[in-house]
Amino acid sequence: MSHKLVDEHLAGPGEAAPAPAGRQLDIRRVVRRETHSSRAGVSVVAAVLVMGLAGYGLLESAVHAIGQPAWLIEPQLAAERIVALPAGLPPLLLGAGGAVVAMVGLFFLLNAVLPGRRARHVLNGADSTAVVVDDEVIASALARSARLAANVTPEQVMVVVSQRQVIVNVRPTSGIPLAEQAVLAAVEDELREMSLDPLPEVRVNVSSAGVIGA
To answer: Which of 83, 98, 151, 199 has the CA that lies 20 to 30 A from 162?
Structure first.
């Protein structure tokens, strides 16, 4: 699936009017929104967790202040047990709890640090046009080019497209030599015609096990 974002402006006959700087900025923002995943969901989860912990701490403190029994644990007792760690806890339980906390922290850290790109590429075009294409569509087109260059069936070619790399896996037909360089050249030519941004590197893997031809 492709997403085409076009900005049209008045121009003379046969002329293409350049998009204003503000329009170009808007298109770049839309392209970034289409190629990067939103962090709103993760931010909401983090905010809810922090608010829940803060609310519980405030509730326990208020209950303690009016002399009522704690809902779960006294704040002072909880603080003492935290300071006394790892005393009083089985090593297995302590290790499991530490692993869970580490995984949750790593999840939020990676979401904050990593770019969070979607499986999409941008096709370079005119300044007033932006085309965002899903990697599945790109892989399908590249698989067709590789299949024609290798002279094999569609089932014998599998293409995986990532942000920086294209991996072409080909299973040759038994008894028929396969020109690996021809497949590589065909896929690279197709990528150049697409003008992807960023332009991924191509790697061709030819299986050692052939397929019996029909």
So the answer is: 151
The pTM assigned to this predicted structure is 0.53
pLDDT tens, 133-166?
Answer: 788 888 899 999 999 998 888 899 999 988 788 9
Q: What distance in Å separates the CA atoms of residue 214 and residue 195, rounded to the nearest whole number?
A: 37
Contact criterion met (CB below 8 Å) for 120 and 133: yes
All domains of the chain in start order, with CATH: 40-113 (no CATH), 120-206 (3.30.300)
Type and span of the H or E element at 159? strand 157-161
Reported as a single tens digit per residue, the pLDDT across 32-71 is 655 566 666 777 888 888 898 888 888 888 887 887 887 7
Q: Where are the alpha helices (DSSP H) in the chain?
A: 21-35, 40-65, 75-84, 91-113, 135-150, 180-194
